[in-house]
Structure to design on (361 residues):
């Protein structure tokens, strides 16, 4: 198939290290490996595995179609206020597949209220209603889309994936100093502010461990500063932004991974950090909410998101019980490499696109 792949968010650099950039790039690579002809459109430039064209409204896609031929489908990553993919697909007479990673009007209103324009809610409703197929990354998010769409029909869950080639061997989990890893650039909704208290509690319990933050940014430095203020400066490292291969290498140093999300009545995430840590063969301790228990399915530990003591006890138990640590890590790795890969996502996208093409014929 010829696929026009659209990402209209200026906050997602195609060659960046943030989760959205990794998702964009990895899915494009997987669709190309599946044999599809991909042209990607973005308002930002950067290193990218498929031809990358500047996005300036639907005319960008229409001009490209004139040059290379009409696409079989347009695949658009939902971006706040952007309808270029939808409008171009309607002119070209091809299906639109809409990937939804977050309820952006709700999310922006909560965390970045100044970024929500007066028309953004209407654009969201239009996109959800008119897309031929919506791919949501989690079940809570799918239900949200279906509610605005007015039907479950045309909505499906396609969770995020990983690249198994980055993880040819599992993390050893033994030897050296016990290490707790947090993957990603901490944001307010990640719960990273709980990490300094966790590390202090481990030290008090006679199990001093190193905190490794594989990421960077102001959130990471704030966590590291808090750890240092508690007299544990020797026990924290912030790597800064890293590429995929280096992320995988640093995860190999860890004993336990944590994703301590705070309680959220609308937990709509499909966290890349959890899938990547599973693929590395790490036991993951995370919050009992949203799709997280289903993602781990017993290969990690989920705890009450409001219970710091439960988080501490789960991490301490894994650091002290090598057999449990290895069993959960092996199970998590097997599950991630079997169920949560970008090639698997590309296979799902292909099947859904083909179904839309048949329905439109």
């Amino acid at each position: 198939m010829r696929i026009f792949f659209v990402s209209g968010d200026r906050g997602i650099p195609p060659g960046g290290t943030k989760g959205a950039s990794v998702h964009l790039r990895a899915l494009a690579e997987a669709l190309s490996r599946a044999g599809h002809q991909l042209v990607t459109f973005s308002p930002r430039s950067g290193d990218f595995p498929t031809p990358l064209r500047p996005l300036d409204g639907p005319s960008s896609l229409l001009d490209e179609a004139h040059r290379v031929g009409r696409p079989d489908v347009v695949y658009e990553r939902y971006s706040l206020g952007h309808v270029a993919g939808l409008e171009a697909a309607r002119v070209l007479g091809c299906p639109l597949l809409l990937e939804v990673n977050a309820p952006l009007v709700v999310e922006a209103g909560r965390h970045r209220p100044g970024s929500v324009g007066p028309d953004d809610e209407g654009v969201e409703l239009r996109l959800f209603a008119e897309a031929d197929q919506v791919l949501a990354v989690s079940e809570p998010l799918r239900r949200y889309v279906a509610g605005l769409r007015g039907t479950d029909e045309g909505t499906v869950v396609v969770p995020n994936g990983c690249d198994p080639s980055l993880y040819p061997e599992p993390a050893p989990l033994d030897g050296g100093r016990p290490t707790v890893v947090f993957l990603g650039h901490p944001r307010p909704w990640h719960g990273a502010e709980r990490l300094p208290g966790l590390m202090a509690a481990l030290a008090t319990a006679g199990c001093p461990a190193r905190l490794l933050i594989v990421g960077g940014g102001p959130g990471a430095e704030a966590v590291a500063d808090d750890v240092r203020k508690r007299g544990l400066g020797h026990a924290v490292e912030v790597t800064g932004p890293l590429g995929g291969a280096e992320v995988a290498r640093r995860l190999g140093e860890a004993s336990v991974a944590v994703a301590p999300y705070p309680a959220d009545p609308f937990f709509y995430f499909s966290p890349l950090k959890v899938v990547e840590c599973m693929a590395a063969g790490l036991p993951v301790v995370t919050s009992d909410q949203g799709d997280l228990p289903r993602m781990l399915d017993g290969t990690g530990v989920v705890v009450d998101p409001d219970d710091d003591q439960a988080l501490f006890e789960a991490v301490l138990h894994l650091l002290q019980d090598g057999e449990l640590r290895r069993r959960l890590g092996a199970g998590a790795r097997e599950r991630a490499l079997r169920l949560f890969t970008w090639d698997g996502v590309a296979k799902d996208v292909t099947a859904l696109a083909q179904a839309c093409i048949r329905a439109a014929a």
